[in-house]
Design brief:
The chain has 513 residues and is mostly helical. Helix content is 66%, strand content 2%.
Length: 513
């Protein structure tokens, strides 16, 4: 596939996947509203628009309590250029543009990162779809500044990879620009995640390549130049934010606050089965254990069975290339467990990470690592298989069938014995029975999907070259699965929820006193 044509086809396919996921948002006047969107984003964008219309600098919000900072709150991204679309777009339309645009940005970034790792266009497209349509990333849309920061994460690693491969000021410029824009996006946690992944990548490079001292010095100078440029760009946002944070509770977070919304080990099943625990009507003790007694931080943790199966194939056939993203994904998922593992306590001792709340945020970079791992598996699938590779491919197929059997056994446990899932549910009777049936169907669905992927893998292992039809079937199955689950992650509400202005407000405005 020629580079230009291949890139255009993959970009079009990724755009189609994102459009299908957000089809209702694109084709209806309904608006996003969940959580921080309705409670914080819409009203603060109204304050921003009003301040600019009155000719004032958007530095302060006088309409909340006794007033609160506007620019100094990085959550509202006032120094981030896309935010200024508020001056030309209606709020509901603007948030749609920001959400869908950043999702496509994430897809193209993961695709570009896979290409920089030397993978083909098909593999790169797999990485883009697996990251942008993953449950953790889509669930971040209501946490808009984190969503934007996560969308820039693959581009940051893409630019860093350019500096690693060709150290110098020319490669430092794009790295500094991307890091600066990510700073302006307002998510300190995603900047820290980028720094964590970037440090790991540099350490991997230095240990494996053992470059000469002169090259290390050039790499260090380039990194310093990129950091200086990024800090200069981000200063307009983070200097006032740091001044405010110095006197806020963030400066004195205790470990319990840091570890709030830790990923419970029991919720790990949601990585494999879409919203298995999230949608259950759990009892109060179970909800307290899994979600701190509240709603989950991330509505969907599902990263896709096809990407995970491809990742297993990549580890079996391309272990050297797959080792780094696999280790990164494993480490980040363990870190997301928070207080349930000692790893998180060690992380809090690192500079800056002590300001990070909610360990589940580590699932965003983990999803990127899974996407790159899936791309390695796709590259392995398309390559020529020796007799030994075919044996390993059959072993992966058997493991997938065993996993499917475990999912069916879990479905029986959920739907069969009366005392299986019932003790963890809030109510009994018909409601509990319906919840158990739904959970069992989700497990059966995952089992069926695993069986289909296992059969395709077994068929692939029977020949030296990949069959284009089987390859297309596998990738389309994976994309359709992610799109089908992703469509329900960010529900919409009637536009009147944000547009309606009660007549009483206008009447009160005209009253003296």
């Amino acid at each position: 596939m020629k580079p230009v044509r291949g890139g255009a086809l993959v970009a079009a396919a990724l755009a189609a996947g994102v459009a299908a996921t957000f089809a209702e948002a694109l084709t209806s006047p309904r608006v996003f509203y969940q959580r921080d969107i309705l409670g914080y984003w819409y009203p603060h964008m109204a304050v921003f628009r009003r301040a600019v219309a009155e000719g004032a600098w958007p530095l302060w919000n006088p309409w909340v309590g006794f007033g609160s900072p506007l620019l100094a709150d990085a959550t509202f991204q006032l120094a981030y250029p896309p935010t200024w679309l508020a001056l030309v777009l209606e709020p509901g339309v603007q948030f749609k543009a920001l959400t869908i645009g950043h999702c496509l940005l994430a897809a193209l970034g993961a695709c570009a990162l896979a290409r920089r790792f030397g993978l083909g266009w098909t593999a790169a497209g797999t990485a883009g779809a697996a990251y942008a349509l993953s449950g953790p990333l889509l669930s971040a849309a209501s946490l808009f500044h984190h969503f934007a920061g996560a969308a820039w994460l693959p581009w940051l690693l893409f630019a860093l990879e350019g500096l690693v491969r060709r150290p110098g000021l020319a490669a430092a410029l794009p790295l500094g620009l991307v890091a600066g824009v990510q700073l302006l996006a307002g998510s300190g946690e995603m900047c820290l995640a980028g720094a964590l992944l970037g440090t790991a990548r540099l350490a991997w490079h230095l240990v494996r390549s053992r470059p000469p001292r002169s090259r290390v010095l050039v790499l260090g100078r380039g990194g310093a130049a990129a950091a200086a440029l990024a800090l200069a760009l981000g200063a307009v946002q983070w200097l006032p934010t740091a001044e405010r944070a110095r006197d806020s509770y963030r400066a004195v977070l205790d470990p319990r606050t840091n570890a709030y919304w830790s990923l419970h080990p029991g919720a790990l099943a949601d990585l494999l089965v879409p919203r298995l625990a999230t949608d259950l009507p759990l009892s109060e003790p179970a909800r307290q254990a899994l979600f701190e007694g509240r709603e989950p931080l991330l509505a969907c943790l599902y990263v896709g069975l096809v990407p995970l199966a491809l990742g297993a194939l990549g580890l079996a056939l391309r272990p050297l290339l797959a080792a780094a993203p696999a280790a990164g994904a494993l480490f980040l998922v363990v870190a997301a467990l928070g207080r349930h593992t000692p790893v998180y306590a060690l992380l809090l001792g690192l500079p800056g990470l002590g300001l990070m709340r909610y360990p589940q945020k580590f699932l965003w970079p983990a999803a990127l690592c899974v996407a790159v791992l899936a791309a390695v598996g796709t590259e392995a699938w398309e390559g020529r298989w020796s007799a030994a590779a075919r044996r390993r491919g059959r072993l992966v197929a058997v493991l997938l069938l065993v996993t499917a059997g475990a999912a069916l056994l879990a479905a029986w446990w959920v739907a069969g014995p009366p005392d299986g899932l019932a003790p963890y549910l809030a109510s009994g009777g018909d409601e509990a029975a319906a919840a158990r049936r739904t959970a069992a169907l989700k497990l059966a669905r995952s089992a069926l999907l695993l069986v289909v992927v296992a059969l395709l893998a077994w068929r692939r292992a029977a020949r030296e070259q990949a069959d284009p039809g089987a390859t297309a079937a596998l990738l389309l199955l994976g994309a359709a699965d992610l799109v089908a689950i992703g469509q329900g992650v960010n529900p919409l509400a009637p536009r009147e929820l944000v547009d309606h202005r009660p007549a009483l407000v206008d009447r009160l405005a005209g009253e003296e006193g």
